[in-house]
Write a structure and sequence with these properties.
Blueprint: H1 2-25, H2 40-76, H3 96-138, H4 147-156, H5 167-172, H6 174-193, H7 199-207, H8 211-214, H9 216-232, E1 236-246, E2 252-266, E3 270-276, E4 285-289, E5 295-304, E6 309-315, H10 321-326, E7 344-350, E8 358-373, E9 376-386, E10 392-396, E11 402-406, E12 418-423, H11 424-435, E13 445-448, H12 452-458, E14 464-469, H13 474-477, E15 485-489, E16 492-493, H14 497-505, E17 512-520, E18 525-533
Antiparallel strand pairs: 1-2, 1-4, 2-3, 3-6, 4-5, 5-6, 7-8, 7-10, 8-9, 9-12, 10-11, 11-12, 13-14, 14-15, 15-16, 15-17, 17-18
């Protein structure tokens, strides 16, 4: 046992002595793994190359798709070849008057043929007519002369003159000749009544009357209307508003809006044109096209926001002399005459949204329809002329005078396509101020009259009743209200809405005026004073 213990101890010590040498022998097999450093330049370069290849691949794919798409589409969904569009050639149709003329010609040819045959037949039988008459009268086939019968025939015919060759004819048929004389007398009377034409000739003339001749007065009427249009159209112009817009690709494009205008004055410096204002909003350039197709630039001299009317000015230096000689200034007529309702009128302008002037004929169906606007009141005329929903232009009478400015913005829904116009009589003062460059004063008050019956029953003071006020208007900012009754403006007493509007037309814009109103209180109306500055 002891020996074994010593041996084990020795072996362990022996191993300890040999272990350092063994470790040194396998030391070369040990290695330490280190992370490889990142080359940022190379990584960036590879990234750029990969992205470029991806972009290039996408471009090639798009190009291939664009080139192959039509081929594949035609292969998968083949299209049929379009058919040739052809129109049948028109045949020369025979007009109704030609048909009537042809029928009359044929009947005339037939009648002429029958006349030729009858005349030949009469010539052939003329030699035996006397013999046949004698045979029919005597009842036998021989010619018998009876002097008694001859004398009786002479008395019955009123001692008619005859030759010796006509003795047998006159003596054998007295009754027949009496009937012929009566018919000849009757035919002479008919000829005298029909201008020397017989009944047959009159019937032939009636058959020769063509529909064109029957409708000639109707055509003449329209020709006369067109003559009036031709005299006035030289005073019409086309107003074009040129605007600049930007499309989806940030490209600048121009858009145009057109409206009709009428030349109203020439002040020896400018040519003044009346047109719609809303069609010119946002315009960078306003172009005027005259009747001879020449153009000139214009500027807005003044406008009225209530009626949407503007006066444009064109410098006479920008208009050619030939154009000045061809254009005319429109004459302003009257829209309050008593016989205007039911009278024919002509509408000229941009009636259906086309650039060129159009013309329509009709008549005035009503007048005196009141259109109440802020600080103003106008009379509107209606017609039976069909037009677009937003027409522009003028109405003229048979004298070629302007009696209305076309405006369909006040039409009812059921008559929105029937042409309406504001009477020129009420607009003359407004147009004069706009032509002189004066601004239209604005307070924002909608006024109407108070009837005598209502004023008596409700105990209201006489004046202009305020039915409405524009929001943020000068009148509202100063405290005027709906229901107030305007009794004085400045030094002028107000008895009606027309008085208020007439006084306001004579007031300068941006001037202060004193307005006196009657306002309903707890027990009675109270007088209130306001100082309002017009705009």
């Amino acid at each position: 046992m002891r020996m074994n213990g010593e041996n084990s101890v020795d072996s362990e010590s022996q191993d300890k002595k040999e272990s350092p040498g063994a470790a040194s022998d396998f030391e070369f097999l040990q290695e330490k793994i280190k992370e490889r450093p990142i080359n940022k330049k190379k990584l960036l370069k590879r990234t750029i190359i990969t992205a470029s290849m991806a972009v290039l691949f996408g471009l090639l794919a798009c190009l291939s798709f664009l080139l192959l798409e039509p081929v594949l589409n035609n292969w998968l969904y083949p299209e049929e070849e379009p058919e040739m569009v052809t129109f049948p050639q028109e045949q020369n149709e025979m007009l109704p008057e030609d048909m009537l003329t042809e029928g009359t010609t044929v009947s005339q040819e037939e009648s002429e043929t029958q006349d030729i045959h009858s005349s030949a037949h009469d010539d052939g039988e003329g030699q035996t007519a006397e013999t046949k008459t004698a045979e029919s009268a005597s009842g036998v086939g021989t010619d018998v002369y009876d002097p008694d019968r001859e004398s009786a025939a002479a008395e019955g015919t009123g001692a008619r003159e005859s030759d010796e060759s006509d003795v047998h004819e006159n003596s054998l048929a007295p009754d027949y000749l009496d009937g012929e004389d009566a018919r000849e007398d009757h035919s002479e009377e008919e000829r005298s009544e029909t201008g020397g034409m017989s009944a047959g000739e009159l019937a032939e003339n009636q058959e020769e009357v063509t529909p064109y001749e029957l409708l000639k007065p109707y055509q003449t009427q329209y020709e006369e209307l067109y003559k009036i249009y031709g005299e006035v159209v030289s005073g019409m112009v086309t107003v074009t508003a040129v605007r600049s817009d930007v499309d989806w690709f940030n490209n600048t494009v121009q858009s145009e809006g057109t409206t009709a205008g009428v030349i109203i004055a020439n002040n020896n410096r400018e040519l003044l044109i009346l047109s719609r204002k809303s069609s010119l909003d946002g315009a960078e350039t306003i172009r005027i096209s005259f009747c001879d197709s020449t153009d000139a630039e214009a500027v807005i001299k003044q406008y009225d926001q209530n009626t949407d009317l503007a006066v444009l000015a064109v410098d006479l230096k920008n208009i050619e002399e030939g154009t000045l000689g061809s254009i005319t200034v429109a004459a302003l007529g009257s829209s309050i005459s008593s016989g205007i309702t039911g009278s024919p009128v002509i509408a000229i302008g941009n009636l259906f949204g086309y650039n060129k002037d159009t013309v329509c004929y009709g008549m005035v169906t009503s007048k005196g329809n009141v259109v109440t606007m802020a600080d103003s009141e106008y009379k509107m005329m209606t017609t039976d002329i069909y037009a677009g929903t937003n027409p522009s232009g003028i109405l003229i009478n048979m004298k070629g005078e302007v009696i209305g400015i076309i405006d369909n913005s006040h039409n009812h829904d059921d008559t929105r396509n029937l042409l309406s116009a504001i009477g020129i009589t009420e607009l003359k003062g407004l147009i004069a101020k706009l032509s002189n460059g004066e601004r239209i004063p604005y307070l924002g008050i909608y006024a109407q009259d108070i009837s005598a019956q209502v004023r008596t029953e409700m105990g209201l003071p006489q004046g202009a009743y305020i039915v409405d006020i524009d929001m943020d208007s000068p009148a509202m900012r100063k405290g005027l209200q709906k229901g107030d009754i305007v009794v004085r403006v400045g030094l002028q007493d107000i008895k009606s809405a027309a008085d208020y509007m007439n006084v306001l037309r004579n007031v300068q814009a941006e001037s202060s005026i004193n307005i006196v109103v009657q306002r309903a209180g707890v027990e009675a109306y109270e007088e209130m004073h306001f100082v309002v500055q017009t705009e």
